[in-house]
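Field notebook, page 488. I keep forgetting to write these up properly, so this time I am using the form the group agreed on. The chain and the ligand, iron/sulfur cluster, are recorded exactly as supplied. Prediction of the bound pose follows.
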Amino acid sequence: MNLSKSRYTLGIRCKKLLWLSCFKKAEAEDLGNESVLENGNKVGDLARGLFGNYTLINYDDNYKNMIDETKKELLNKPNIICEASFSYDGNFCSVDILKNDLDGVEIYEVKSSTELKDIYKDDVAYQTWVLKKLGYNVKKSFVVYVNRNYVKNGELDISKYFIKEDVTDKIDLDKVENEIKSLKKIINSKDEPNIDLSLGCHKPYDCPFFKYCTKNLKEPNIFNIGWNVQIKKKLEMYYKGIITYKDILDAGGLNEKANEQMRFELYDLPPKINKEKIEKFLSQISYPLYFLDFESYQESIPTIDGTKPYQQLCFQYSLHYYLKEDGELHHKEYLSDDYNGNPMYGLCKQLCDDIPMNSCVLVYNKKFEISRLKEMASLFPEFREHLLNIADNIVDLLVPFQNQDYYVKEMAGSASIKKVLPALFPNDPSLDYHNLEQVHKGDEASNAYLSLKNLPKEEELKLRDNMLKYCGLDTYAMVKIYKKIKKL
Ligand code: SF4
């Protein structure tokens, strides 16, 4: 079996990951990276124009055709070749952008990320090694990635959108050669490498084989603990053989919240409710009372003036509200139909009509809603004062659960609404996201919004209806949770 740049980088992350990807692919979990891939493709296509005109080597299952095509194009120097393909001794690579100058070449590896990760340098180092072995004068090697501070203003300025980082001096070709030798042995062996868990299981990315690699550990174990216990700490205990909840508690435990999670699950403890703390939390709440939830999507390449790459762009909200305590529950909602424009203008306009100034607004996990309100306030000066006023009056319903003032064992170390809701209302089908159609979680709502403009009218209306139901359930769930803790 031969190496490619993606196999090489998998092997750098973990040799077992490389082997499993080659021989036990079916064991990989789907970590939902579809939108990451899609963004990667869009950014990669855009980057091809970085140096003006270019020639693209089209993908071919038969790599030899790509290599032959590249050889022909290399003769036309100076030129720019995208997906220029090479192979040396069974090591294949396609260079995202090859600057083919009269006196040598420059390699540009394009990433859709907004930070320069070490693994990208390994990627470009492998390509540099292949080309140097083939006798090319590689003058410089670069990683190209997205400038997170770029703000679109008029025509997209590709030279400012991308950052080109020269990593030539960081490349150690002897190291690459040794790695290639050892990775070739791995992929040409029938034996699964015997490699233990490490920090690399979660960094720079979560490994899709984590479940497979921990399948022999008795559940629940150290890796099922929530409450922000760092993976480094978990691994320390795992290496010492402190793995089950009982082992961990006997060894002195972790932080208090984690210990509580373990005790609740081990000893099947009844719900813990700190009425005094909950009362204090509820004392901040006043009427009229609004329950707000936004849905948003991200664009790797911003199309809206004033926004940055990957900024969260709100297109929908749901708003349940009581005008007075013990009054009737009302509902309002917004879902943009401005599919090709800026969905946030109409949203802000209606939001300011729907929530009067100085009203108490309950959200779940306020960081998200407050950040969105502030971003939209800076985009639309006419709504600025009102949006900031809404942000100032937000109360976070997450707090009593995050502080474990209300804790039941089914929350399993998490205060996220997706855990809290079924834990508090285990047998209520009206609160079960599984019973919804088409849209059941945030990323599905984002993808649904982005797909609306291309759907036939009937399908568009059906999907919009299901999007409204999903977002409506988010705020209805907050109402139910609020009422439950209020009853206490
Ligand atoms: S879970 Fe960890 S040990 Fe297992 S393949 Fe992935 S990175 Fe390697």
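OBSERVATIONS:
- The longest helix spans residues 457-487.
- The two ends are 64 Å apart (CA to CA).
FOLLOW-UP: compare against the apo run.
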